[in-house]
Write a structure and sequence with these properties.
8-stranded mixed β-sheet, 231 residues, 8 strands, globular, 10 helices, alpha/beta
């Protein structure tokens, strides 16, 4: 199997170089950074990295702002069999390739990793464990967990829905209808910055409220006006 990593990025100059340098040794086949109109050095960092590391297949492309649109642009461009959607502030585990291949050698159409926050203590420790438990119980994946999927399944679903948020939840719901999703116990490590900036408890209430309203059928376009503080 060939595996592509798609990284949607928007003003991620503080984290992108670290993420790219962490992904490179994992032996994956493509790295695609999709910039959504950054106003900082994000595109230049990606371009410089790929020019320096010529032994990897790396691309920096542009797409309209929005994770769904950016991930779709990278997913359609990728030539690999498996697509991994990775946030720009998230690090895959060192055995990511083996874990993905092992899952897809079985009956799974895709999967996701467990998540841990950095630092892995206090609220970060508790929230990550709750996220992993909820995901395993519900079968729903979130973008923080590095969703991966077979390319034919991505095509069959026509990629992520063009919505301003909840694209990961929506994708999970639709993917579950086509087959089983692997809940890997290997952990990605992601930044706790968003939660710290807005306060962990406030962020939990905010996000769970949005998901509850989405479950009730309120459009993501309507919910978008409430999401700016935690996006």
């Amino acid at each position: 199997m060939k595996i592509a990593v798609i990284i949607p990025a928007l003003n991620e100059e503080a984290t992108l170089a670290k993420t790219l340098s962490h992904v490179t040794p994992l032996g994956l086949d493509e790295i695609i950074v999709v910039d959504g109109g950054s106003q900082d050095q994000t595109p230049a960092i990606a371009e410089s990295y790929f020019q320096t590391h010529t032994h990897i297949t790396g691309h920096i492309i542009s797409a309209p702002r929005g994770r769904a649109r950016q991930m779709n642009a990278g997913g359609w461009m990728a030539q690999s069999d498996i697509l991994v959607f990775l946030h720009a502030d998230t690090l895959l585990p060192k055995d990511a390739r083996r874990a993905i291949e092992h899952a897809l050698e079985q009956h799974y159409i895709g999967g996701r990793f467990d998540v841990r926050f950095e630092p892995d203590r206090g609220y970060g420790w508790l929230i990550s464990r709750m996220m992993n438990w909820r995901s395993r119980w519900s079968g729903i994946c979130t973008g923080d967990q590095a969703i991966f999927v077979r390319k034919p399944i991505f095509r069959q679903l026509n990629g992520f829905s063009d919505i301003p948020l909840m694209e990961d939840i929506d994708f999970s719901y639709r993917a579950k209808r086509l087959g089983a999703i692997a809940p890997l116990r290997e952990k990605v490590t992601t930044s706790f910055r968003r939660w710290e900036q807005n306060g962990p408890l406030r962020t939990i209430v905010h996000m769970w409220t949005l998901r509850f309203l989405y479950w009730l059928g309120i459009s993501p376009h309507t919910l978008q006006q409430f999401y700016g503080a935690v996006r």
